[in-house]
Amino acid sequence: MEPTKEELKAINSLKRLAKKWPKSLWLFSNGMGISIMRCGPDGGQATNEYGGMDQDYILDSVNIPNDGGDW
What we know:
Blueprint: H1 5-20, E1 25-30, E2 33-38, E3 58-62
Antiparallel strand pairs: 1-2, 2-3
């Protein structure tokens, strides 16, 4: 399947962003969109006492359709 010009532009923009993405940030996919997270004190994904994502580390969110599932 070939992407449209608009889709290709969005894909290339995301690839450019990935090249300069700060190591201090990570993305969390959820039903509301994508949360932009700051890494925890150890440099990894911050979790709460129950092992879930620590919402205190959310910096912002983006409403992009997504699925957090694995292949």
